[in-house]
Design brief:
The complex is a heterotrimer. Chain A is α/β, with parallel strands linked by helices. Chain A has nine helices and ten strands. Chain A has a six-stranded mixed β-sheet, with helices on both faces. A four-stranded antiparallel β-sheet of chain A has the order 2-1-4-5, covered by helices on one side. In chain A, helix 6 links the parallel strand 7 and strand 8 (188-192). In chain B, 77% of the residues lie in helices and 2% in strands. Chain B is built from eleven helices and two strands; from the N terminus they run H-E-E-H-H-H-H-H-H-H-H-H-H. Chain B has helices at 3-6, 21-43, 50-89, 94-109, 112-126, 129-135, 141-171, 174-183, 187-217, 229-243, 249-278; strands at 14-16, 19-20. In chain B, strands 1-2 form a two-stranded antiparallel ribbon. The longest helix of chain B is centred in the N-terminal third of the chain and has 40 residues, at 50-89. Chain B is flat and about 75 Å long. By secondary structure, chain C is mainly α. In chain C, helix 3 runs parallel beside helix 10 and helix 8 (211-241) runs parallel beside helix 11 (303-311). The chains are: A alpha/beta, B mainly alpha, C mainly alpha. At the B-C interface, helix 2, helix 4, helix 5, helix 9 and helix 10 of B face helix 2, helix 4, helix 5, helix 6 and helix 10 of C.
């Protein structure tokens, strides 16, 4: 469903991605773990083309998307993204945040968009907060609205960039619950996170990245209990302490 | 009785945008004191002298209208120019950002008085003769010069407004722009639905202040042959001594002028604060420059 | 053809910058042509007269500095006064009510003492309140009226009460400028003092500082760092405002313009000189401000509050 081959990316002198190759099949939930600076966020952004890889190919549903002639907007309709800092539009209410893309990108009528938005907000448990502004919501609530906003576009896959890293501990649970339910329903997901619990429960596969390369790939049991590489072992032991 | 209950106070009733009953009382008392006690005591006149107003009213009204005219001329221009320049300043394209920076630095670095005098002297030379003949044939050269000077004041203000708008643009969190991209919104859609709404809300408070400054700046036009409040008042004072009226009336005139400006700027700034409050979105407080 | 496009895309930065320069130089050339055109630049005029302009600039600097310092004294005192803790009328009324209730509940013989206390506190808070409000009023008036009007006001004051000095343009101008900058500086000082004020004095007292020592060792050092940027900006603004001495008959740069009124001849040269002078001075001063800011910055110290005062566009004339 999503395939990347030999992705390279430099930021100035910094070689952030040094040849990343992997594949995500439809319905799979992949978790990417690794130390900060390993290029995880950059990799995610290469997939929905917020960042253009220097070389390599990105395939979505068999179509290579990182070449001329492909509309970036089309790519982003196929793949939705949830950010670490939520990035809700502060001047719009929760429901307006969700309907903006529906009305302006998908061209839906306002009524249909609102209806769909309500359903989605209910799905993430925030039906009551439809008319609240982001500043009036807790971090966990904001992130759930962000998830609803991304889901509204009916993407084929979802990218999560450290969705719970900016949350107070008491709110992490509610967001992870939504993500776990999403994975169970069969959404193709790539999640960058430090939440090992979620990785164990919901991930079909885990990728460990370090210094721009994928060091090891495997199931949760393989990576956490029997890591093959030394670096993986070192990282996992630090996290699972 | 513990301290807490001892100091329990009822929140004084707020009338309008931070002006409580106390404020109003204060202002009324101060105003009355000024009009009837202080000023007569010092300056030996009463602002309510009918004789005084008999002469002054004509000048005052003409001048006031003149001021409003110049403000109406300069203000919209300054906002539009300021917005465009502010936008250009944050552009990645140097073809926009460099000229805009130059504009802003030049018009902020020069005092408005100098701009006005320059404009009055060769403002008309800057306009191609053809346009002058077509649109402004009926006007005297001097009047056009004053009009251009008023525009110059607008341009001076626009340089400051450009900075305000620039700060407004830069205060929109980059992450939201990214999120808009991730949703598939196109560049102009991002501008229209995400960036601009927030820019305006953020820029509003300092902008209100800038408007007040613009209104005050129109007084500079009195230095050239503009027809506005200060100039007209000065005219009156020109003929006063000859007519044999008490020289102390000079103070009356300037007090009235000062009060007028004060009331105007006070109203504008408080009024805008009211407007801000009505359109307030939680989470979008004004920027500080 | 696509080679060209690729080349353009890769070297866009230089292309972009070049275009920008073209626009700028083009506009300047156009203006130059309009104003000077075939006449040719009158360099002789510049060579002949530049001393006059230098002299005029010195007058400006002189006036600005004096007015600034006087204004600083005014501004500091008024600003300090305005940070006086006053009790709002409502709270005062509330505490009066409490007092009454207390008296009813617990009648004691200390009537006289109680009454005295009430009167004294009334006087004390009352005076503080009035003083504070006068300070507020002063600042509001200065900020709410144009500098030009203030100058004319000062001038008429002299005409009426001190006619012998009425022609001393420089003196009148400096006084008007001083009062004007005093009002704005009062706002700066107030904001600076208040930003540091509340919690830190309490903390200092808790450690054992006296009120005065707390002010000296805790509040002032921080407040000083906060107010330096806006104060330097104020100086720049005041310098720009000193051009108003022109209307008082003091020879400044632009009086030469007025002399040339009818003769549109060397106007561009004068324009160029004056612009160059002002831009040079304001840009230099701006750099000084930035350098000072960087040097005295304390990370995390709320520059925000004081910036509000600065953002009040301390450009004089209007504001």
């Amino acid at each position: 469903m999503i395939r990347v081959t030999d992705i390279q990316k430099h930021f100035g002198a910094l070689h952030v991605l040094r040849g990343i190759t992997f594949e995500v099949k439809k319905g799979e939930a992949i978790v990417i773990i690794g130390p900060s600076g390993s290029g995880k966020s950059t990799l995610l952004r290469c997939i929905n083309l917020l960042v253009e890889p220097d070389s390599g190919q990105v395939f979505i549903d068999g179509v290579q998307v990182n070449r001329h002639g492909i509309r970036h907007e089309w790519v982003r309709e196929q793949v939705g993204m949830v950010f670490q800092s939520f990035n809700l539009f502060t001047h719009l209410t929760a429901i307006d945040n969700v309907t903006l893309g529906l009305i302006r990108v998908k061209g839906m009528s306002r009524d249909k968009a609102v209806e769909k938005a309500r359903v989605l907000l209910a799905r993430v448990g925030l039906a009551a907060k439809a008319n609240a502004y982001p500043a009036e919501l807790s971090g966990g609530q904001q992130q759930r609205v962000a998830i609803a906003r991304a889901l509204a576009m009916d993407p084929k896959a979802m990218l999560f960039d450290e969705p719970t890293s900016a949350l107070d501990p008491e709110y992490i649970r509610e967001v992870l619950d939504v993500m776990t339910a999403l994975a169970r329903e069969g959404m193709t997901m790539i999640v960058v996170t430090h939440e090992m619990g979620f990785a164990s429960n919901a991930a079909s596969r885990i990728l460990f990245m370090d210094a721009g390369k994928i060091v090891e790939e495997g199931t949760a049991e393989e990576i956490f209990q029997h890591p093959k590489e030394e670096r993986t072992r070192a990282f996992v032991s630090k996290i699972l302490r | 009785m513990d301290t807490a209950t001892a100091f329990q106070l009822r929140e004084p009733p707020k009338l309008v945008a931070g002006i409580t009953l106390i404020h109003l009382v204060e202002m009324v008392v101060a105003g009355l004191l000024m009009a009837f006690v202080i000023l007569p005591a010092i300056f030996d006149f009463s602002l309510l002298s009918a004789q005084f107003w008999g002469i002054y009213t004509r000048f005052y009204v003409t001048g006031l209208f003149g001021t409003f005219f110049y403000v109406a001329l300069a203000l919209p221009l300054s906002v539009v120019l300021g917005f465009l320049m502010g936008w250009a300043r944050v552009s990645r394209l140097r073809i926009f950002s460099w000229p805009a920076s130059l504009y802003v630095n030049v018009f902020r670095g020069l005092p408005p008085l100098i701009l006005v005098i320059f404009a009055s002297l060769f403002g008309t030379s800057l306009i191609p003769q053809a346009i002058l003949d077509r649109f402004f044939a009926g006007f005297r050269r001097g009047d056009i010069a004053v009009g251009i000077a008023a525009i110059a004041i607008g341009m001076h203000s626009s340089a400051y407004q450009a900075e305000i708008f620039r700060a407004g643009f830069q205060s929109v969190p980059k992450g939201q722009v990214e999120a808009a991209q991730a949703l598939g919104l196109r560049s102009w859609q991002r501008m229209r639905h995400v960036i601009l709404p927030q820019t305006f809300r953020l820029s509003l408070p300092p902008l209100g202040n800038e408007v007040a400054v613009l209104i005050k700046d129109t007084s500079i036009l009195a230095a050239i042959s503009g027809i506005e409040l200060v100039a007209k008042s000065r005219d009156l004072l020109g003929i006063l001594p000859a007519s044999g009226f008490p020289i102390v009336w000079i103070f009356a005139v300037w007090t009235v002028v000062a009060l007028t400006y004060f009331v105007i700027t006070y109203t504008v700034t408080r009024g805008l604060r009211l407007l801000e409050r009505r359109f307030h979105t939680p989470g979008l407080e004004g920027i500080s420059l | 053809m696509s080679d060209l496009r690729v080349y353009l895309r890769n070297h866009w930065r230089y292309f972009d910058a070049a275009l920008a320069l073209v626009v700028i130089i083009g506009t300047l050339a156009y203006i130059y042509d309009l104003l000077v055109g075939s006449r040719g630049l009158d360099v002789a005029y510049i060579a002949r007269n530049y001393t006059l302009y230098i002299h005029a600039v010195f007058t400006n600097v002189y006036a600005t500095t004096i007015a600034y310092l006087v204004g600083m004294a005014i501004g500091f005192s008024v600003g300090w006064l305005r940070t006086a803790r006053t009790v709002s009328l409502a709270r005062f009324a509330a505490s009066m009510r409490t007092e009454k209730r207390e008296r009813r509940e617990d009648p004691s013989q200390r009537e006289g003492a109680r009454r005295l206390l009430v009167v004294v506190s009334l006087l004390w808070y009352g005076t503080k309140y009035v003083v504070r409000r006068i300070g507020d009023g002063f600042v509001e008036i200065i900020r709410g009226t144009p500098l030009y009007v203030q100058i004319l006001f000062a001038s008429s004051f002299f005409i009426v009460f001190l006619p012998q000095y009425a022609t001393e343009g420089l003196l009148i101008g400096i006084i008007a400028l001083a009062i004007n900058t005093g009002g704005y500086q009062a706002e700066i000082f107030r904001a600076g003092l208040q930003t540091v004020h509340s919690g830190q004095i309490e903390a200092a007292r808790a450690i054992g500082f006296s009120r005065l020592s707390a002010m000296r060792y805790v509040v002032l050092p921080q407040a000083l760092r906060l107010i330096i940027p806006p104060l330097t900006n104020e100086y720049i603004g005041l310098f720009k405002a000193s051009t108003f001495l022109f209307v008082l008959g003091v020879p400044t740069e632009i009086s030469y313009l007025a002399q040339h009124e009818g003769f549109a001849g060397d106007v561009f040269e004068i324009f160029a000189i004056v612009t160059a002078i002002f831009l040079a001075i304001t840009v230099t001063l701006s750099f000084v401000v930035q350098a000072l800011e960087r040097r005295f910055r304390i990370p995390g110290l709320g520059i925000e509050q004081v910036k509000v005062a600065r953002g009040v566009r301390l450009a004089r004339v209007g504001g």
